[in-house]
């Protein structure tokens, strides 16, 4: 029950973010659904014992792949779907606690939170990288040692 | 022929300006402009875009009638709908369904058209986004209300202050300060239990999602200059938000 409520709230929040970024109207619900996929993957993999950073990477990868598939089908720029899709992963709370620790003078704790924030941001980026390499497979730049004609 | 090249240059640069202003990835801008110019029959087309400007050069024929122009982009906003519209125009133009002047006219319409959603709708949904994330980050159901109010306050002050301030990071700083202050006040008068989650929710509408994602995409596709500068932009925005809310916390708690 709690998870269903979380999913509904994720959908609402992701659609709301889509409106903030002026995503076209017919793409709003798709973006929200991708947000739900992201949240499901994140929570499921954490439930099965994955570290938060690994789970974030996995969720970001799946969000980016789903976004790419739908963007291609709906003839939209990928960003209109991938940005709402990865928003549930943004480490807002960790960034906040980093700031809070620094304000209160707990520098060690702040560094701890800060490193975790950066690693999660890196995991989101990593997921995007992998998805890009998968979806553009076959469009390589050519052999490294090919002579330039 | 020279007039044609001139109009094509204006059309391409207008398309590029819209896309860069409203948050398209660099590779998309360069590819769109190059494709449009090639489709119009020009040779030796090259486009180079950074986060603040676009260069475009082409020749009418091989070795004849060189043309080169640049456009400088000062404002960077986020309106993914306009990017989609420009994408559509460029697709129809390269497919041969539009003439140059038709494409130019449609791009001008896109350029002057208002935002996709009215501003008050954006404010209301900033509240939905903020309160939703405050719940997802571990707040309770009762915290949805103060988070909603604080997020709307942050969003309103961001939009209103941007009209007065030249430095964007200053208005983001002030908006984060307002959001944090409203959240703290609401918790002080007894509305809401988890102060941390409410503050996080109120700041979520300010998060630089578009520059952050674009920075990653730009760096990956080899537009290192644009990617680095966009990343720095996102970093500065995050720092401005963090220091705004840090000020609110150290003043009121």
UniProtKB/TrEMBL annotation, chain A:
**Which GO biological process annotations does it have?**
succinate transport
Subcellular location field: Cell membrane
**Statement: the UniProt record of this protein carries the keyword Cell membrane:** yes
Report how it sits in the membrane: Multi-pass membrane protein
GO CC field: plasma membrane
The superkingdom listed in its UniProt entry is Bacteria
Q: Which residues cross the membrane?
A: 53-71, 78-97, 117-137
Which Pfam families does its entry note?
Answer: ThrE_2 (PF12821)
Q: Which UniProt keywords apply?
A: Cell inner membrane, Cell membrane, Membrane, Transmembrane, Transmembrane helix
Coiled-coil ranges per UniProt = none
The Threonine/Serine exporter ThrE domain covers 7-133
Q: To which protein family does this belong?
A: Belongs to the ThrE exporter (TC 2.A.79) family.
Q: What is this protein identified as? A: Uncharacterized membrane protein YjjB, DUF3815 family
This protein's species is: Salisediminibacterium halotolerans
